[in-house]
Amino acid sequence: MGTVTAGPAGGGSLRGGSWRTIRDGLAATPEIARGLWWTLVLALIASSGRIVVAVAVQVAVDGASTPGEAARSIVPVIVACAVAVLVAAGASVWMNRRLVRASEEALASLRVQAFARVLRIPPHRLGGAPRSSLVSRVMSDVDTISQFTQSGGISLATNALQALIAVVAMFWYSWPLAAVVLVVAVPALLIMQRAHALIAARFHAVRIAVGGLFGGVGEAIEGVDVIRGFGAHARVQARVDGLIDGVEHAQLRTVWPVGVNTAAGELINGVITTAVMLVGVALGAALLPPGLPAPDGGELVAFLFLVTFFVRPLQFLVGQLGEAQNAVAGWRRVLEVLADPATRPSAGVAAIPDGPIGVEVHDLGFSYGGGRPALDGVETSVPAGSHVVIVGETGSGKTTFARLLTRQLEIGRGRILLGGVPVEEITDDAFARRVAVVPQDAFLFDRTVAENIAVGDDLPDRQRVRAVLAELGLDDWADALPEGIDTPVGQRGRALSIGGRQLIALARAAYLEPDLLVLDEATSGIDPGTDVRVQQALRRIARGRTTITIAHRMATARTADLILVFAGGRLVEQGTHAGLVAEGGRFAAAARAAVGAQHPRR
User: pTM here?
Assistant: First the structure.
């Protein structure tokens, strides 16, 4: 499975990819689709009001050239046309309100759906993609759609209908002149339609570049302390400048194809008007083959108005093509998140049997990016309710093993069974309730201590939070905070020390009361005095549940029921502390080195 990224730029003709995107988007946003037909009726009425002007012009011209009774009939026709225009204006206002309200409700729903899907993306599907690029999809891309629907989208629909009505009216007035219009317009429109694929690809590239800029700026802001501490200002500035230049370049690449289409629209207007005038005069002067109906003066003038009502919407459609393709590109990127199988609820159907969770590992293998194996042929069995400690040098594969066990990575080869159930078959909810992970670098939300400990609850159970802290021996630490458990921790917990963040992460795991607890060097940021206290509390919490600890201190392994020793991506030793020391292998050597470091010779 690949990373969650934007699809390839291209394939965006209105006949193909863009119409498919619009169809899929309407399916994802039923708020728009529900009242679409009634809105189209209002748009039809609004567009027809402009066509009525051509009828009024014809009656006025013919009446002015005809004395007597015919001239007196102009007034009621003009009044009727004025009423029709007013009705069309009212329909336009009503349509705009309906469309704006429906589109904003739909886009809000789209944001909710996209964010809900983003929360379900497994860590292994994100790969190296910056998280801020996903923010771009939920925020920036939906904003692009919103801006288009409020500005050009409504006019795009009404102008398209007006052009269609104008074509029907032109054939009613004079089919030979209407045929001239289409002979000139259709080939030009087909050429412009073929340019849509290029325009769509260019605007899709713009959205990708904007997403990359979001990611780069977000990464720089998150790492501002490192940037300052290591003097990396110039390098980071150069990288962000490059991303900004990339967005500029992508935007500039849209100018030429859109500009050509705009110029083509202006050219069509002049050519069609000239052709209609020449053919109309030729028909009136009988210069063309007999049998073709010749328009009178009023009809020809009215037809020229219809030509304007046909060509101007086409010019607008061409002018709005760039914005439309930009919006469709943004819509497509949001729909990619909704359509990605990785963002859907887990397909797992199994629950883990009640009670402590046993772990079985069979021929487990994994490699990052197709490189050399980080794990190869790991076989082990962890009895339910036991305390297991994993040790090994940096890069030996112990953290990779923990991440596979907790579904943060996708298994490359082999199987992992929790309580006899393959990990990939366990539902998300069941896994979240039964398995807790405390990583090396705990993530905290910008909320209070209590809210971060009871992160899965709408409202934290304060009494239970205090009980967990007391059980861990952390109640004195929490009471010493400025506002106790109501102390805000700041964004990503920056108001606390690294050790303080880890203590909250430990309390968060204990609050969940899991049946399988995985500690990935969870006490590495805690001072030795606090570490002893926490280790004692963890031993109490571990009773009755399975605990797997990735240890950085050999003292942790002394109380383990089972020790797993990793080296070079393989499980090279496993057994009890006494047994492994007696074997005199890797673990025994590491244990002796640890004792020597604590008691150096003088």
Answer: 0.58
